[in-house]
Design brief:
The complex is a heterodimer of chains A (322) and B (304). With 322 residues, chain A is α+β, with helices and mostly antiparallel strands. Chain A has 13 helices and six strands. Chain A has two domains: 145 residues; 84 residues, no CATH class. In chain A, the strands form three sheets. In chain A, strands 1-4 form a two-stranded antiparallel ribbon. Chain B has two domains: 38 residues; 184 residues, Sandwich (Jelly Rolls), CATH 2.60.120.430. The chains are: A alpha+beta (322), B alpha+beta (304). Chains A and B meet through helix 11, helix 12, strand 5 and strand 6 of A and strand 15 of B. Chain B: This is Complex I intermediate-associated protein 30, mitochondrial.
């Protein structure tokens, strides 16, 4: 724990001076006595706040109900990016050292993550975990350890980790350090973290047909990848018959022609060579193929199996088909 | 058995015996508040009121349980006695000992679909659909539908979007439950044709305590997609224990002597249509696979 405290000393010298009640001079000179962090912040208004959040103070003076979503909605009017999301979290953390209403804020932030596009970003989850006040929820005696100390905050911590688990994000050592500082070593969020760290590496590489991350953006490349996947033959050759282009028809309209990519293996070429031209071939499709969250459609050229009287039995070695 | 006695009474006089049954049950008081802590009864959809019907109101006197049912069950009972004379599970003992592959479910006709139940999150108010039919040439089973992961708006449910197919519990004569005995095998072998989606194979074994009712052993089933068939072999040592969908801390290998059902679940949060075609499901004995269990069994998490 000394490591994390040293880190904090480097990053936020003001906060730690206040925490330990050390006789270090505060930012406003040696006249101000050192305060314990549990007291109300005397200099909240003197801290710089971004201009767009200034009217929050005026809102508090009115008697209307202000929800935690208002902060996000204000920011959402401009741009929904990681930077604005981080800004909202920073505004909340700097507003009050006791972090009043942090549980509702964290639940709201978890819901809004998908809108801002940061649901797969580990640094944002760590920043959100940072919202919890440190060392307040760590049980200090056996009675507190027995009785599920601060159950709502523990449930909130578990929900953050559960959203990370749902999106398949692996936590890192910073998450562990934060969890230990906030909840202690034998808490529910820490247990959930241990379970994630145990099971995720076991199941990371069990897919025998892994889909590359990220998927190729070009539709022709995507078609090539999916055809190679379903061909079941490493020697099969991909041919691009047509690239996506725009064509001008007779009436002068512009028609967008899609791409046509095909794959054929040596065994299929042989079958086609042996096929009797009197019998029909069928084009079947569109059949779906899912690659994680995208669905591509493919067509199959096939024919009915030849009836027994037309089969030609050759005297050659018969290889068992796998 | 009381069920046999009722079936021997002709249908017309069944109703006259109702008051006798009530007299017998008078000593049993119906539960005012069901004791939910110990016994978990059938699934209650979130938001629906709890039904507290006294047990005597739940009995249905169906005339369809007529003479045909009696004939069918007695025939099954006769078959069972004949099977015992041949050997274990109706096969000669030498065949049972040397068996290496056994096909358990083969979809070769419409009656094979009677052994399976499909369900989706429509039961909890979601919008997924799932249908089961026979595939082309009546040779395979075709499971298809649409997945929709929008959670139902009942204030309780947070995640949704699942579709599942589960086999029915095997029954012997007179609807008695029996189990699959796969103790001489160690691998699950399936021939499937998916569309690239990851499925989950769930095996439910027979349990003793009521808390273990939703204990299921699961493993992932990754499909390649495409027109070619895919042979999937999953050793039973890879199945991990889950309870109500949550993986458990204390893991132990699946016991193969009393298997109840097998099922396939799709819940990969990708909204859209899906399809899975199954040719057969069987078990095989792989002599090269010597692993007992793939996960650690010792106590991993330190005591709190």
């Amino acid at each position: 724990m000394k490591v994390s405290r040293c880190l904090l000393l480097l990053v936020r010298p003001v906060r730690t001076a206040v925490q330990f009640g050390a006789p270090l001079p505060g930012p406003h000179g040696p006249q101000q006595a050192a305060r314990h962090f549990r007291c109300s912040p005397a200099s909240a208004k003197s801290r710089p706040v971004p201009a767009r959040f200034v009217n929050q103070d005026e809102k508090k003076r009115t008697t209307s109900l202000a929800t935690q979503e208002d902060l996000f909605e204000q920011v959402a009017k401009e741009a929904k990016t990681k930077a604005t999301f981080n800004e909202v979290i920073e505004v909340f953390t700097k507003r009050d050292v006791r972090r009043r209403g942090h549980v509702e804020f964290i639940y709201t932030a978890l819901k809004k993550m998908a809108e801002f596009g940061v649901e797969r970003d580990l640094s944002v989850y760590n920043k959100l975990l940072d919202v919890f006040p440190k060392e307040v929820f760590v049980p200090r005696n056996f009675i507190q350890r027995m009785f599920n100390h601060y159950p709502r905050q523990q449930e909130c911590g578990v929900q953050i980790l559960e959203q990370m688990e749902n999106y398949g994000i692996m936590p890192n050592v910073e998450t562990k350090v934060l969890l230990v500082r906030i909840f202690g070593e034998k808490s529910h969020p820490m247990r959930k973290f241990q379970r994630i760290m145990y099971w995720f590496p076991k199941f990371k590489h069990i897919n025998p047909f892994p889909v590359p991350q990220p998927l190729p953006g070009d539709p022709v490349d995507l078609a090539r990848l999916s055809l190679k996947r379903i061909a079941n033959d490493l020697d099969a050759k991909v041919t691009v018959y047509q690239l996506p282009c725009t064509d001008v028809t007779e009436s002068g309209e512009e028609v967008e022609l899609p791409h046509i990519v095909g794959i054929q293996s040596a065994a299929q070429m042989e079958l086609l060579a042996k096929h009797n031209p009197n019998r029909p071939v069928f084009v079947e499709g569109p059949l779906p193929l899912w690659l994680r969250k995208t669905c591509v459609y493919y067509y199959v050229l096939r024919a009915d199996p030849a009836p027994p009287e037309e089969k030609v039995w050759k005297l050659s070695a018969v290889f068992p088909l796998g | 058995m009381s069920l046999q006695k009722i079936s021997r009474i002709p249908a017309s006089s069944l109703l006259s015996t109702v008051h006798d049954i009530r007299w017998l049950l008078r000593s049993v008081t119906p539960l005012a508040v069901p004791n939910r802590a110990l016994v978990q009864s059938e699934y209650r959809r979130p938001g629906q009121p709890r039904e507290d019907k006294p047990p005597w109101q739940k009995i249905k006197f169906d005339l369809s349980k007529g003479l045909e049912g009696v004939k069918k069950h007695f025939k099954l009972l006769r078959q069972e006695f004949a099977d015992r004379l041949v050997g274990p599970e109706g096969k000669p003992i030498i065949e049972h000992m040397l068996e290496q592959n056994r096909v358990i479910w083969e979809f070769r006709g419409p009656e094979s679909l009677q052994n399976w139940t499909v369900s989706s999150d429509r039961e909890i108010g979601g919008q997924s659909e799932i249908y089961l039919k026979l595939g082309r040439n009546n040779d395979t089973c075709f499971l298809y539908g649409t997945l929709c992961s929008a959670p139902p708006r009942d204030g309780e449910t947070r995640y949704s979007g699942y579709c599942t197919m589960r086999s029915k519990q095997p029954l012997v004569s007179f609807d008695r439950k029996t189990h699959h005995d796969w103790s001489s095998f160690n691998t699950l072998h399936m021939r499937i044709r998916g569309d690239g989606r990851p499925w989950m194979v769930n095996i439910a074994a027979e349990t003793y305590f009521s808390h273990q009712k939703d204990d299921i052993y699961s493993y992932f089933l990754y499909t390649r997609g495409g027109p070619y068939w895919q042979d999937v072999k999953i050793p039973f040592s890879k199945f991990f224990l889950t309870h109500r969908g949550r993986i458990q801390d204390d893991q132990h290998p699946l016991w193969l002597d009393k298997i109840n059902t097998i099922g396939f679940t799709l819940g990969d949060k990708a909204d859209g249509p899906f399809q899975l075609e199954i040719d057969f499901i069987g078990v095989c004995k792989d002599y090269a696979h010597t692993e007992d269990f793939a996960y650690e069994v010792y106590k991993r998490n330190p005591e709190v």
